[in-house]
């Protein structure tokens, strides 16, 4: 248990201390390395202390997944301000609607990949554990996806937005899984970014109507 965690615990932040310990164990050893007893031991608290906040391991995993999606949402929101500003009609509009949308989406795609590479155990939990079907995790996941949807809405006609969002989400998740599993070797962060950019631009180059085709951004 770190000094900061001990200080947090003694100031009443038991939940935060437990969550940080669980995140360390998760990224180090995956879901199998997690138990409430192991988390308590890492946090330097009694074996019964975690039960004050988490009824069982599944509740802890759900809290971790929700936490991960909240952090990912924050990264996506920060990334959404990078690239083309003001939608398809912005002053920095790219040469084509596809290029403009790719410029807007690529920073969010890179942010997602970076988060996964920084937190591999947590990312696998967020997208591959049964806890993702719990209402609180679904809500946290939906908030992350909503950032992507909102960004796309500034560029694509309403009829194409959901398809584009699903395509981007699936593409980035697939690339991330391949990177985490070592199926693409061990590229540098710069090489991974270039791969993500290329894949996003290729996917977004498919047939879809820009927002102007519908006369505005309405649904």
Describe the overall structure.
It is a single chain. By secondary structure, this protein is an all-alpha fold. It has 9 helices and no strands. The chain has helices spanning 3-10, 14-29, 36-43, 57-79, 97-118, 120-128, 135-153, 158-180, 189-204. The longest helix is centred in the first third of the chain and has 23 residues, at 57-79. The N and C termini lie far apart (50 Å).
The helix content, as a percent range, equals: 55-70%
The string of secondary-structure elements, in order, is HHHHHHHHH
Strand segment tally: 0
Question: For the terminal residues, how far apart are their CA atoms?
Answer: 50 Å
**Overall 3D shape:** elongated
Number of separate helices: 9
Mean pLDDT: 86
Question: Biggest sheet, open or closed, and with what strands and sense?
Answer: none
Q: Which stretches of 5+ consecutive residues score pLDDT under 50?
A: 1-9, 84-93
- Percent of residues in beta strands: under 5%
Structural class: mainly alpha
Radius of gyration: 20 Å
